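Q: What would this chain look like folded?
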Amino acid sequence: MINLIIALIALLVSFYTFYLVNQQRKTPKPGGDSFSTRPLQLQAYERLVMLTERISLPNLVSRANQPGMNAREMHVLLLETIKQEYEYNATQQIYVSPVSWEAVRNLKEQNMLIINQIAATLPAEATGLDLNKRLLEFIMTQKKGAMHNIVLEALNYEAKKIMK
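A: My prediction, written as structure tokens:
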């Protein structure tokens, strides 16, 4: 009987402690909320910087280059890689500014357009290496600089605003 009473008291104390701990978590602290999204936002910007780097044409061509592929196969591989990278990070848009997300989306669209346009100019017998070479040549002729660098600057600027 005494063991039952002790067990009940221990159970009540546990529930009461659990209740107090949860109340403290819900109570806003002076000067801010009890939950900050800042770490999630910074992590999202980090992921978008990584995405931007991964879908930049020079890095994409370097990673996807596979000897023996024809231009059509390389074309499909490059587009699929961009789509997968983008879709994998699509949830990050809820943590970043609309301007930042739009910049990343525009980079994706621009890179896919460039790949499509350059692939369309190649002869049917072109190799994947030919496509990659033409893509890199195109990037080298960009007067304003590669768009991925502009997107990276925008993402860094937004992230630094959050860190202040």
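Residues 37-163 form one domain.
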